């Protein structure tokens, strides 16, 4: 454990750095628990996030999906292309606005995510079983607060647009 990071004299910066390192280590440990099942199923975390968001929120634009799974527009196009080639999603133009491409689950995609999501959710629960339910709720609230504050710092305003229905891929 570091007493004082090199060149950092501010105790608040030191505490932020320590929390950041712990956050990254915890996230990597949880991902390491859930990735094997995804790899066995032939999915990446991002692909699963797209399928899960479509399952819980219904058809979304590629832009909305990119915001939900926190990926760039270029990467989202690649992810959707791969899922479409596998017959798991379908693209369509939004009536009245052909600039907007909507993405929806195909019947095959719905079947795939409906069979994969429950064991994936159990894997996540297992990875997070070191915390009591009240601690998980507290962690969720703190991480949401942190995420909104960090996003507001980067964009200058909190992100409030887009669907607010429950999606578990990224909250």
Explain what this protein looks like in three dimensions:
There is one protein chain. The chain is mainly alpha-helical and 171 residues long. It has one domain (22-155): Orthogonal Bundle (Arc Repressor Mutant, subunit A). Helices cover 64% and strands 10% of the residues. The chain contains 6 helices and 3 strands, in the order H-H-E-H-H-E-E-H-H. Strands 1-3-2 form a 3-stranded antiparallel β-sheet. Strand 2 and strand 3 form a beta hairpin. Helix 1 packs across helix 5. The protein is globular, with a radius of gyration of 19 Å. It starts with 10 loop residues before the first helix and ends in a 16-residue tail after the last helix.
Integer-rounded radius of gyration: 19 Å
CATH class equals Mainly Alpha
Specify the CATH homologous superfamily: Winged helix-like DNA-binding domain superfamily/Winged helix DNA-binding domain
Mean pLDDT: 86
Which helices and strands occur, and which strands form pairs?
Elements: H1 11-41, H2 45-57, E1 60-61, H3 62-69, H4 73-85, E2 89-94, E3 97-105, H5 107-127, H6 133-155
Antiparallel strand pairs: 1-3, 2-3
Helix pairs in contact: 1-5, 2-3, 2-5, 3-4
Task: For this entry, give a set of tags.
mainly alpha, Arc Repressor Mutant, subunit A, 64% helix, globular, 10% strand, 6 helices, 171 residues, three-stranded antiparallel β-sheet, single chain
Short structural description:
By secondary structure, this protein is mainly α.
């Amino acid at each position: 454990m570091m007493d004082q990071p090199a060149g950092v004299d501010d105790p608040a910066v030191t505490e932020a750095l320590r929390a950041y390192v712990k956050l990254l280590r915890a996230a990597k440990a949880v991902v390491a628990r859930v990735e094997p099942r995804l790899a066995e199923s032939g999915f990446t975390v991002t692909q699963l996030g797209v399928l899960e968001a479509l399952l819980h929120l219904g058809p979304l634009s590629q832009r909305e999906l990119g915001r939900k799974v926190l990926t760039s527009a270029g990467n989202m196009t690649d992810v959707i292309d791969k899922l479409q080639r596998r017959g798991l999603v379908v693209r369509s133009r939004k009536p009245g606005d052909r600039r907007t491409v909507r993405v929806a689950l195909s019947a095959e995609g719905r079947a795939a995510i409906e069979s994969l999501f429950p064991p994936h959710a159990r894997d996540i629960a297992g990875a997070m079983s070191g915390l009591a339910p009240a601690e998980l709720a507290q962690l969720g609230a703190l991480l949401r607060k942190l995420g909104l504050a960090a996003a507001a710092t980067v964009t200058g305003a909190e992100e409030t647009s887009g669907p607010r229905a429950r999606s578990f891929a990224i909250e």
